[in-house]
User: Fold this.
Amino acid sequence: MVMKNVKLAPKKSANFYYLNHTLESLYSPLGVEILESPIAFKKYPWSRKYFDKKPQEGYFIWVRQQPDKPLITCVAISQAKTNQQLQNLLIIEKGITAESLVSCSALASGLCAKHQAQGKIVLKEGASLSYKHLHSWGKEDYVKPDYEFILEKGARLEYFYQLLNPPKELTFKTKISLLEKASANLNVIMRSKNSAINIEEEMDLLGKGAQGTVNLRLVAEKNTKIKAVNKLIAKAEGKGHLECQGMILDNQSSIELIPDLINKNKNSLLTHEASIGKINEEEINYLRARGLSQKEAINLIVNGFLHLNL
Assistant:
C-alpha cells in the first residue's frame, strides 16, 4: 500500500468528533461501542486497569465484532490557548481485523494551544489493526502524544504516523509490547520547520516468535531541532529491526539519532541502520535542468525521501 496525498478525515465522516473540550458527534457502528472516556470509566470497571488515571476527556472504542468500515476519530482545536488532556482507549477483540484513522489538528494558526493525549491500544489474541495517525498543527502549538500498544498472542499491527504541519514543540512517545508470535510495523514520517521535536520510542519483544520493525524518515529545516531515541528490547526469542534516516536542509537545523538495542535472549536477532545526510546537489541540478525551480526540485527530492511503501 502506498500512502499518497494524505489528508485529514472530514468531521462529517467521523465516528467520534471532538472539538476543543466538547463532543460534537458520535456514531457507533454495529458491533462497536464508542463512548467518551469518562463515561466508559464509570460504565466499565474493567477499563480502569488501562487508564492511568480517571479521565477528564478522550475517547473509548471497543471493537467487539468485525467492522465493515474503517473507524474514524477526529480531535480538533479551534479556540486560542485551549489545553486538551485526552485519555484514549481502543480495544480490538480476539480475531478481529480493524482499520483506524485518527486525525488531530488545529483548525487555525496562532492559537497557542496545547494537545496532550495518553492512549492505550489493546489487540487481543489474533487481532489485526491498521492504525493511521495524522497530525496537523499551528506554528505556536505544543503537542504531546503518548501511546502504548499492547499486542497479545498472534496479534498484528501496522502503524503509520505522519506530521502534516509541525507545531512549535512536539514530544512524541510510543511504546509497543509484543507477546508470543505478535508482530508490529511502525512507520513515522516528519518534515519539520521551526520546531523542537523529541521522539521516544520503545518496542519490547516479550514473547517467543515476536517480530517488530521501526522505520523513521525525518526532515529538518528552518531552525528545527530533532532528537530521536529508539529502543528495541528483546526479552524473549524474536526478531527486531530499527531503521532511522534523517535529512537536514540548512545549517540552522539538527538531527540527533540514538538507536538503542538491548538483547536479553541469546536466540534473538536485533539489527539497525541509521543515517543523516543532505540533498545531493547533482539531483537538484538534474531537476532544474528539466525546468523545475530550486524550491520545486527540493520538494520533489524530499517527498521521495519521505515516501514509504507500506
